[in-house]
Amino acid sequence: MPDKLKLSKKEKEEYRKLLLDKKKSIINKLSQFYNESKEIETDTALDVVDKAETSYTKEFLLGLTDSERQLLTMIDQALQRLEKGEFGLCQICHKEIGKKRLQAVPWTPYCISCQEKKEGESKGK
Length: 125
Fold this sequence. Notes:
It is built from 4 helices and no strands. The protein is mainly alpha-helical. The model has no long low-confidence stretch (mean pLDDT 82). 72% of the residues lie in helices and 0% in strands. The longest helix has 37 residues, at 48-84.
């Protein structure tokens, strides 16, 4: 079991706010994408070119939402780690994640070293 990272109450609140703000931003963006894809669906395409363009645009918008959904999941997991006192600890090596990294990417579950290893493994496949 990893040690708990000692975060002050103020730091916890700052990270919680960063995570919740990002979550809200993503939800708003997803809602906008959903509404735009519905508008595209209801537009009447006049010819084959219009239909192809409409189809491409809709696929593009829905594809964007997949990565946004994945980010939402990571944010929710980070919020859970914050509640459990495990926030800021790498989920692989259990060492502290640097504060600069947490400020830039507060939902990250890994330190830079472990993240690079994971990315190297996935590129090798």
